[in-house]
Specification:
With 105 residues, the protein is mainly alpha-helical. It has seven helices and no strands.
């Protein structure tokens, strides 16, 4: 798979719309739509980095669909992180505290 397919998959996986990605990345929504179109062009390195950063993935993952072993996160943990990113700082702290308690067992 190429950048277009990997970006589409990541947007679906994270349940993120183009407008939200545009806001998070600072890239015009039309430009992102172009990356997702059937006649897709590769983004500049700068835009690829912005998109990857906004999605909290590596550029490598968007380009190749693969993650390096050190960056590999299981799908269930990625799903949890994606959901947690929507929580308030206070809600996140409650979860961190719970994880700390459970990790001590």
């Amino acid at each position: 798979m190429g950048f277009r397919e990997n970006l589409k998959n990541e947007l679906v996986f994270q349940d993120i719309r183009i407008k939200e990605l545009a806001y998070k990345s600072g890239i015009n929504p039309r430009t992102i739509e172009q990356y997702l179109s059937s006649a897709a062009k590769m983004p500049s390195a700068e835009n690829a980095v912005k998109i990857a950063s906004a999605l909290n993935v590596s550029v490598e993952q968007l380009v190749t669909g693969k993650t390096s072993a050190k960056d590999s996160i299981s799908p269930d943990i990625r799903a949890m992180i994606t959901k947690m990113n929507k929580f308030s700082p206070e809600e996140k702290q409650v979860i961190f505290d719970m994880v700390d308690v459970l990790a001590r067992k």
